[in-house]
Amino acid sequence: MLVQTPHGRLTCELPTSYDAGLFFIGHIRTPWAKQGECPRHGDLRGPICSLEIGELWQPALLGLERYRLIQILYYMHLSPRNFLIQQPRGKRGRFGAFALRSPVRPNPIASSIVRLIAVERHGLIVRGLDCVDGTPLINIKPHDLVNAGRNIGIMEAENQIQEEP
Prior knowledge:
By secondary structure, the protein is mainly beta.
């Protein structure tokens, strides 16, 4: 069922069951206790944060110290999941959840590229996060600048498509 709310939002009732499951591999420790305190975007020069990795998953950190940048996937557990259309701050008009980078979405999964400061026995020390303290951690991936550079070719192709009549 769809529900129109004040402030130009359109919400829905969520399904009663899930399509998939996942494991939280740990939790993120940041200086921000509330959502409103978090920065809108991470900054690689931002405050030190830590990723506390569950004991079962700690062996998977082997070799990560070779990377300066890593990608963090996390679950924004405090965000509403039923907003389909929103009126974002600072923008004119209404937008669907998939047209925004807002944490308010059906599957509130965030991705941040962060600076790896240290690999420790029980986790990681990083800079560049923008989430509330205690956020569940979903995954960690190395951010390989060589492979990330492949996106340049994708952007060049996109520019060519836009230039065509």
